[in-house]
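Record type: monomer structure entry
Structure origin: computed from sequence
Chain ID: A
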Amino acid sequence: MTKQFCAPGRTELGGNHTDHQHGRVLAAGIDLYIRAEAEKTDDNTVKIASLGYPDLMVGLSVLEPQKGEQNRSESLVRGIAARISQLGYKVGGFKATMKSEVLSGSGLSSSAAYEVLIGRIFNEFYCGGALTDVQIAQIGQYAENVYFGKPCGLMDQMACSVGNIVAIDFKDPAHPVIEQIDARFEDYGYALCIIDSRTEHADLTGDYAAIPADMKKIAAAFGKEVLRDVNEAEFDSRVDELEDRFGKLAVGRARHFFAENERAGKLAKALKDGDFDEYLRLVSESGASSEKFLKNIIPQSHPESTGYADCIALAKEALGGRGAVRVHGGGFAGTIQAYVPLDQKDAFREKMEAVLGPGACHYLSIAK
């Protein structure tokens, strides 16, 4: 029997590059989905036809990572099946047709939505629905880390799996603390806009991977694996020594983590309190910290690539001192995020797309 499945994309609202250090984040599922019709089969093979993408076939008789599959969708399917099997559940074949509204490479986590969708299909057909939203997110992260080869944190998968606006504390990643927040930006007179900077993610894997690597170097200097377990006052007392050992960039990225981790909690509180002016102030502060300390605006590997920075500057100019603009997701390329006054939506889009081209601006709503 054919069944319907879906998973939303996600947008990061706060906590830029904090999740992989077991920090706090604020994120939301959005009203763009990957949808699937799927049917259980008895051939132990996953067959997926996705509109706009090559058909995929993964045999599940082998669940170990396969040479040549890294960075491909096949690795995610195999990794998800492997992790579910490791957790003691049966896995097996299904065939599915999929269509995605989540823009690929947009920073809206099409890969995490895909992972959650695959997890939900396995959960329905082979696990009796026993896997929780949190487990499905963790399974997706495992597949992306171990099989796909991307050292991502857990925020993307968690937001896609849980939905709504969620404040998540990853201090104990196996048991994250999740709080859903009921808020609509439109009620405060703003629209959430994701802008495609028209810059490419290609060849930037090393730049992304360097951020958690730098943070972990600093953590290791204190005998810890992640910065969340490092005492900030002790870090402050050793900044000069750490800069001599690891350089200003790594230390700046650690400095960003401590501030952004606290800021993510403040952003959640501002939304719960209905203090949107404070929320926007913190959003702008987050963007400034990413630019100044995290350095994920212009790639270290491609210092000539200023398109992403130019897009941020253009958005700030188009807003004319209103709203807020910040880095979205990993940074370096892809999309940025802006809070646009409702009375400025059309003018903002017109100004941005006059430079970036048609379809660059996407106004989003939160998935409930």
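Annotation 1: The longest strand covers residues 24-40.
Annotation 2: DSSP finds eleven helices and eleven strands in the chain.
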